[in-house]
UniProtKB/TrEMBL annotation:
UniProt main location, coarse: membrane
Annotated GO biological process: calcium ion import; membrane depolarization during action potential; positive regulation of calcium ion-dependent exocytosis
InterPro entries associated with the record: Ion_trans_dom, VGCC_Ca_Na, Volt_channel_dom_sf
Compositionally biased tracts (Basic and acidic residues): 214-226
Intracellular or extracellular location(s): Membrane
One cellular component (GO) term of this entry: voltage-gated sodium channel complex
Protein name as annotated: Ion transport domain-containing protein
Chain residue ranges for the region called Disordered: 214-275
UniProt KW Transmembrane helix keyword: yes
Originating organism: Knipowitschia caucasica
Annotated Acidic residues bias: 258-275
């Protein structure tokens, strides 16, 4: 197995590249430690922080962890596309929310606000004219409010504030405009349920693809191992008959040599008798 040149070399696999990088960093760390307090190599001590990456070497040896990491890595590109779509919807609903609720999320804060109808009445009563924490006064505040809506944490209060909104510098009235409910429901349906669930769908789809790819690789490896075993068996079968043939040939030559020696001895004895 080579280092880089070839199909099945060491650096052709990304997991081997990660493993080799961690080993290289460890070697540099050892050299820096042996150098002691050298001023030139003092900057390289930052590489010791990369020791935290050593547990990643376990991933290449655990098929389950390797599958999960490959799924997350392959999901980055489609997730980026979904993020762009999600941001586009957030900006659209944010601009729409500013147009509908800008300056309308203020209310009079005081002990008795039943007779308060607007900002001037609130200030005359020495009360405070304040706004809600999440509002739509500008695009930034609108995006923050929409993010809370998408997280479904405290979104009901924001929706009720939108329903109670009357006008700019006017005291909110309970359920003043129920039709504003369509704005919040449409945002929840489009963004919270469909767009955000697309993240999960992309990850699940890539997980199945990576698992199929891993299964195909495992099947190829098993097939290669099986072929190697079959090749070894064939070679062992061919070697045994060759040994038998060479043994037989060696035995037959020896027998022929012994017969020739016996024939020569018989001829010599016969000649002596005639003399």
């Amino acid at each position: 197995m080579g280092l880089y040149i070839g199909e099945k070399t060491y650096l052709r696999s990304s997991w081997n590249v990660l493993d080799g990088f961690l080993v290289f960093v460890s070697l540099i760390d050892i050299v820096v430690s042996m150098a002691g307090g050298a001023k030139i190599l003092g900057v390289l001590r930052v590489l010791r922080l990369l020791r935290t990456l050593r547990p990643l070497r376990v991933i290449s040896r655990a098929p389950g962890l390797k599958l999960v990491v490959e799924t997350l890595i392959t999901s980055l590109k489609p997730i980026g596309n979904i993020v762009l779509i999600c941001c586009a919807f957030f900006i659209i609903f944010g601009i729409l929310g500013v147009q509908l609720f800008k300056g309308k999320f203020f209310y009079c804060f005081g002990p008795d606000t039943k007779n308060i109808t607007n900002k001037s009445d609130c200030l005359e009563a020495n009360y405070k004219w304040v706004h809600h924490k999440y509002n739509f006064d500008n695009l930034g505040q609108a995006l923050m409010s929409l993010f809370v809506l998408a997280s479904k944490d405290g979104w009901v209060n924001i929706m009720y504030h939108g329903l109670d909104a009357v006008a700019v510098d006017q005291q909110p009235v309970t359920n003043n405009n129920p039709w504003m409910l369509l704005y919040f429901i449409s945002f929840l349906l489009i963004v919270s349920f469909f767009v955000l669930n697309m993240f999960v769908g992309v990850v699940v789809e890539n997980f199945h693809k990576c698992r199929q790819h891993q299964e195909v690789e495992e099947a190829k490896r098993r097939e290669e191992k099986r072929q190697k075993r079959m090749e070894k068996k064939r070679r062992s079968k061919h070697q045994i008959p060759m040994r038998e043939r060479s043994w037989r040939r060696g035995g037959g030559g020896r027998k022929g040599e012994e017969g020739e020696e016996e024939g020569g001895e018989m001829a010599e004895t016969h000649g002596e008798e005639e003399e």
